Design the sequence.
């Protein structure tokens, strides 16, 4: 079954950097777009970034554009999120999520929904 | 950016009752809308995709409807495990966005 395990969270000071990782297993990682979604304490969900299966064109929320970079290593089945110039507003649980897919007859279709999620890793930005 | 507004913010119901949750978009998202359920301390779970299609292993008491700007998630008869927070999310354009959520609580 699909398993996504995030790591790399912790407590950091404002203005610093952090890199999150997400180890994927149970599916063909190189064939799926992947996402990062975050949730501030007690708040709702916020999509952060998406990366297609071939790393051809990445997309970001305006709140992180220019500061965060999503990348992937298909040889290691691992997704990354490089976060720079962190602020208190970036404090959240960060989830990695696999793009949703389903079979329609003999055709597999992917859609930009979040079909499987990791357990999340907490990032706290505080001085 | 497409803004999704969910209502009500809190829905207080008893087990066995029917729950009707609303998600409204500030511009058309066609049928490109999903619903998720999130329980405390857990990651969200996909319930409905493309407005009305149940994801794998989702019970039939969950149904979705709507298109364009107005969408509804209906839980026909609430089970104890259905009390949770529900989010809608569109995939019509970048950026992907979520609604603010509806909490379904036990009355």
Sequence:
């Amino acid at each position: 079954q699909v398993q996504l395990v995030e790591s790399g969270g912790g407590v950091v000071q404002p203005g610093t950097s952090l890199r999150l990782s997400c180890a994927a297993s149970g599916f063909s990682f190189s064939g799926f777009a992947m996402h990062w979604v975050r949730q501030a304490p007690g708040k709702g969900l916020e999509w952060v970034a998406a990366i297609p299966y071939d790393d051809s064109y990445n997309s970001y929320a305006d709140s992180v554009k220019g500061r965060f970079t999503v990348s992937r290593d298909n040889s290691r089945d691992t997704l990354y999120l490089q976060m720079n110039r962190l602020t208190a507003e970036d404090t959240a649980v960060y989830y990695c999520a696999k793009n949703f897919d389903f079979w329609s007859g003999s055709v597999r279709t992917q859609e930009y929904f979040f079909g499987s999620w990791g357990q999340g890793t907490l990032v706290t930005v505080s001085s | 950016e497409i803004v999704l507004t969910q209502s009500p913010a809190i829905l207080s119901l008893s087990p066995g009752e029917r729950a009707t949750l609303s998600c409204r978009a500030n511009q058309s998202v066609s049928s490109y809308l999903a619903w998720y359920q999130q329980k405390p301390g857990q990651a969200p779970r996909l319930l409905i995709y493309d407005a009305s299609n149940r994801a794998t292993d989702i019970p039939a008491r969950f149904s979705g409807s709507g298109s364009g700007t107005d969408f509804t998630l209906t839980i026909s008869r609430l089970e104890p495990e259905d009390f949770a927070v529900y989010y809608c999310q569109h995939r019509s354009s970048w950026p992907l966005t979520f609604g603010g959520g509806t909490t379904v609580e036990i009355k």
